[in-house]
Design brief:
This protein has 8 helices and no strands. The protein starts with a helix and ends with a helix. The chain is elongated and about 50 Å long. Helices cover 68% and strands 0% of the residues. The longest helix has 19 residues. This is Transcriptional regulator. GO terms for molecular function: DNA-binding transcription factor activity; sequence-specific DNA binding. Keywords: DNA-binding, Transcription, Transcription regulation.
Amino acid sequence: MATNYKFKKVKAGRDHIADNFHNALSLSDMAKHAHISPYHFLRVFRDTYGETPNEFLIRLRVTHAKKLLITENHSVSEICEHVGYSSLGSFSSLFLKQTGMAPTLYRRKLWALSAEPFCFPSQAIPACYAYHFLGK
């Protein structure tokens, strides 16, 4: 467990990731905002939050992409770029790994649950039903 001093530094790095997830971020960039070395930042971050900074970054990007896929009519490529990926293949692969389905399929299934286009289905049906439908 990190001491309070280390926790504040790691939290500064985590906040930087959360504020800039749509930009290209390297471990050095993240550690620079925490004012500690990259490998020490990696170790303390994993010990503190139970995931690596990169896993946290991917989780943020996929979560934001899920929201955009449901609420916006942008193409998957546009959403890919909007959440910080330059490669559609990398984005689709990570999205599939995180959610269990491709971005396009995710969008189709959620839109099918909604009565209105570009509307998050939780407005029309309970979230527990949507999660059950998606196998979550």
